[in-house]
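lol so apparently i was supposed to do this last week
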Amino acid sequence: MQYISTRGEAPVLSFEDAMMTGLARDGGLYVPQEIPGLDADTIAAMAGQSYEDIAFTVMRPFIGDTFTDAEFRELIAAAYSGFDHAARAPLKQLDANHFLLELFHGPTLAFKDFAMQLIGQMFQASLTRSGKRITIVGATSGDTGSAAIEAFRGLSNVDVFILFPHGRVSEVQRRQMTTPTEGNVHALAMDGDFDDCQAALKDMFNDFDFRDAVNLAGVNSINWGRVLAQVVYYFSSAVSLGAPHRKVSFTVPTGNFGDIFAGYIAKRMGLPIEQLVIATNQNDILHRTLQTGAQVKEGVTPSISPSMDIQVSSNFERALFYAYGQDGAVVAEQMQDLKDKGGFTISQGAIEMLRDTFASGRASEDETSATIAAEVKRSGELLCPHSAVGVKVAEDHLGAVPMITLATAHPAKFPAAVEQATGQHPPLPPHMADLFDREERVTRVPNDLAALQALITERIQT
Ligand SMILES: Cc1ncc(COP(=O)(O)O)c(C=O)c1O
Ligand SMILES: N[C@@H](CCOP(=O)(O)O)C(=O)O
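anyway here it is w/ pyridoxal-5'-phosphate bound
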């Protein structure tokens, strides 16, 4: 299996190299040259299997000879051993035809753990073989950061720097990133919003002198390995509702477009998905893009679902690449227009493909709060605000086919929003019960590339 860049100009790489490289050297994102299919019998055989067995079957065709089957099984087992639910991603029924996929049973209480725990294992295996030392820099609106820190804290051959927007993540999210005591963890509170953090990260990758000097690696969904690991729970949940003999639909709370893009990959692999619904908060650029056929950047407005306060949605580039029939030159041009002119118009053929593949909706702040309040009364399920955005939008798309909404984080990560909506204070799980007593360690940084690079260079030398 070979990996190519969405902008068509970067070297073609193996799975291992694409994973360790992060952003392609032409500024694009790596995708598999071909998307392997799974036949109906293989999908049907997943019924009743463990999450780990399904993960092996789904991901194996993508990894080439990076790991032997036995090694890969071991890495998967280690990745999910710390989850606090035997099913890893349990499905709960909300209503007659509406189900919630709980993706918050990993160590940092968000769906990011599914991919980050596995990436942590795969990185370690690869670094042990190569003897290399790397510098991970990640951008986060709250959840990727803590998941990355959890996966890489304490490793002697990795430094992990996490850029988060100062004042724009929840207090629990911030403390998850600022309280680890390991010397290889560096929490950086940057002036600006998540888009600024992600732009700075991509600028670091595009500065080849810096990138090569620090051996830069990425664990955002820039990294194909992140998307791949997220494909698995589309299969595990769909099969438990009768796939491949029965179709299912998914609604996905969306920001950087990685999670829903994983759903698109599942569909391309043969999972019978009827609708893939993009659910956005008031930062609704993705919903507007589908409606109007043009992607036009607006400023980010802080919301009660802060992890989705994103306007430059990195993985939309991967969807565009397929919408344009894998034409990297067109994608490169549109991404340049987004950067230079603040937007681009999608061709008629490409927008039709996107509209055939994705539906979309948005939830306002009031609708999000009302959904949290209504759902706890109706089904007893306490939703985090991101999951509530999903449930609200899903309700507008219910039909004959079972709908699965992804619950992307635990309500305890966003206690203020949940308490305001319901009067209930969601308690942190026992392993995080003393989070508010732990000492914080964080560096405030400006939105200035040269200053960030200087800080990172200095820190890894000491
Ligand atoms: C809790 C939560 N829900 C939803 C999302 C959106 O996911 P994606 O960025 O993959 O679209 C994020 C951030 O990525 C998140 O942290
Ligand atoms: N919501 C994310 C934003 C980064 O997304 P990623 O999937 O590209 O890592 C976060 O919580 O940081």
